[in-house]
Design a protein that fits this description.
Two copies of one chain form a homodimer. The radius of gyration of chain A is 21 Å and the shape is globular. In chain A, strand 13, helix 12 (290-298) and strand 14 form a beta-alpha-beta unit. The first copy, chain A, has helices spanning 45-51, 60-65, 69-74, 78-81, 94-99, 126-136, 154-178, 193-204, 207-218, 233-246, 262-273, 290-298, 308-314, 346-350, 353-361, 365-391; strands at 4-11, 14-21, 24-28, 30-32, 55-58, 87-90, 104-106, 111-114, 121-124, 140-142, 222-227, 251-253, 282-284, 303-305, 317-320, 323-326. Chain A is 43% helix and 17% strand. The longest helix of chain A is centred in the last third of the chain and has 27 residues, at 365-391. In chain A, helix 7 (154-178) packs parallel to helix 10 (233-246) and helix 15 (353-361) crosses helix 16. In chain A, 53% of the residues are buried. Chain A starts with a strand and ends in a 12-residue tail after the last helix. Chain A binds chain B through residues 37-46, 66-67, 71, 74-75, 81-83, 191-192, 194-195, 198, 333-334, 336-338, 346, 349-352, 354-355, 358-359, 361-362, 364-366, 368-370, and chain B through 37-46, 66-67, 71, 74-75, 81-83, 191-192, 194-195, 198, 333-334, 336-338, 346, 349-352, 354-355, 358-359, 361-362, 364-366, 368-370.
Chain lengths: 403, 403
Amino acid sequence: MPFRLQIEATRGAARAGKLITPHGEVETPVFMPVGTLASVKAVSQDTLEELGVEILLSNTYHLFLRPGVETVRRMGGLHRFMSWDRAILTDSGGFQVFSLTDLRKVNEEGVAFRSHLDGSPHFLSPEKAMEAQIGLGADVIMAFDECTEYPADAARARASMELTVRWAARCKNYFEEHKHEVPWSSHQPSAISRQEKQVLRSAQDNNRLYDNRGEAHSQTQSLFGIVQGGMDPELRRESAERTIDIGFPGYAIGGLSVGEPRELTRDIVLSTLDHLPADQPRYLMGVGTPEEIAQYAQSGVDMMDCVLPTRAARHGFLFTSEGKVSIKQARYAQDESALDPACDCRVCQRYSRAYLRHLYASNELLAQVLNTVHNLHFYLATMRTVRAWIRAGHAPAAGASQM
Amino acid sequence: MPFRLQIEATRGAARAGKLITPHGEVETPVFMPVGTLASVKAVSQDTLEELGVEILLSNTYHLFLRPGVETVRRMGGLHRFMSWDRAILTDSGGFQVFSLTDLRKVNEEGVAFRSHLDGSPHFLSPEKAMEAQIGLGADVIMAFDECTEYPADAARARASMELTVRWAARCKNYFEEHKHEVPWSSHQPSAISRQEKQVLRSAQDNNRLYDNRGEAHSQTQSLFGIVQGGMDPELRRESAERTIDIGFPGYAIGGLSVGEPRELTRDIVLSTLDHLPADQPRYLMGVGTPEEIAQYAQSGVDMMDCVLPTRAARHGFLFTSEGKVSIKQARYAQDESALDPACDCRVCQRYSRAYLRHLYASNELLAQVLNTVHNLHFYLATMRTVRAWIRAGHAPAAGASQM
């Protein structure tokens, strides 16, 4: 089955369904955990599967520097490299490069930058970013965009948006010419016999993977366009229309969470959503708290990612049904209750707040493992609740559910 | 069933059987992973169970400082605090205090020392160490000994050994008077209703635990004596005899791996084993490499512990059937093979050397998780092999197998 969003229920602007990818189906709206360097920090792939993660995000900029795209490509792409048979999305590196304020230089061709690791010089362009993402081989890849800084004046926001549109066209051109170079394409020789056996073995345990395995080899990646336009709804509309004119199988809203007030983020997201095709996936990049991801999903966003659950976990900040818990606090030192009595994750089922507090206060590695597992579970459970809420509404009219 | 070693097969000096504890049976000879601060670093209790760990070691000195014995005791003891229903052994703190060379002062009464964390002053004596270990509530606890430094002259080694013997008698006296104060004794009120429910729920999943649960409440801990005597076989013999005269349900060989040559360690272990009761557990403390633990098990040692597999893992040193692998080396950057092709652990079944090398080189937390899981599996598999080797020998004559 080709890549698509299969909408199965709607409620207001929200929709629930499945994203069909070369590496399995993904229930939407979906929260994608961030695995920057081909690993969701502190959590094994077994545990991610157990948590029900169906798609994760990895960062092209970081993988470009370590271990390098060529290494991953030779190992058969990210799926094989990290032994993850479910779906993956990579960003384009644009946002990360944008964050290197003092180390980057942008021109029409692309962005020259220095590595945050060793200061070594590198260059990314729409074509280079496509080449990198094809080599990494994620199921969904992103156009190379310029993330407009905040605040930006009208001229700067327009110029930046137009650059992103021109880059989007170059990305599509390069991608269309090279998309069959993805490491897991049937046009590529099979590289790794041991891991191949591994895939088949795990496939026997999991029909979902097996069913999709034959498909994977005859498919290619899907390239999403990114809407920019700063904080101007009119520019956002124009960016959406011109990106849609180029034509992509999905669209992202980028350039948010760059320092603007949360209300402004929300206004821009909602107004931009109105201009995105109803029958294609809509991906809001880099957002947000559990409340925010629930709200955006209810507003019609299909895909989201954020480092918040994993990063907060490593700093001892845990999301619970009773609010945020800072587990380092001494008040939990003898608290025998579960972190979140309403949570059915392995951490809340097994350990007390006192033990979690002890692990964190003692700087034990297990603190980071358990905290991350809980926070990811909380985010994934939040999205499960939203999906159930949507499905409890009305189903779309026959025929309208398929794009 | 009361605590005992049930010997089921012997081969030469080696013996295989079961250690019967208030928290389940432990197949011997056994390697005990070290969980210094009530956590085997980077590994969840679920994973330890999956690895087949039946007993782990925790350090009284470290728990004494963080989170404090009283906190653990109030939470129901170590088993409940860390949600581990299988057996636990705690050391006495003697070895750790001994390691604080510049921060300790020993006299007949005990050891005054300063915390390695904040320099705060503390005092441990035989009685204090017993009180702490009863509060922590491990199944097997250790007498408070003086670990003789290396090298030590004859007078010093004798004086130190005799101090340890006097302390052993004080430990036993205190323990016999206070052993019913263990938090999980039937004489203690049940403290934690949620965790109690948890124990019962997990017991339903695991008959082994359930079978032993009723027993646990009617039992107490078991206190082992420790043989010292430096590097003098004659002093070791005397230490063994005098400790046996005091009378313990098991005996440890301490004071080794303190800087002496490995051959000397081996000579002292072998000569000391000759003086320990054949029908009681023999515990060799803080040893060693996979080869060493296999050799000592074949020589009649029943229990061993060592930080080596877990600590080496965190530094990227991995034990394999083909020898030691330093996974940080660039030669593994594109090595698609399993870390140890002969290993059936989850890490070797799923990930390539290239991926493990990438995780380590990128300082990813998952490196420490996966490396530790593999090394522990390797140690546990080594002991399974030794047990099978012993059982492939001849069984003891009827009647001789029970103490």
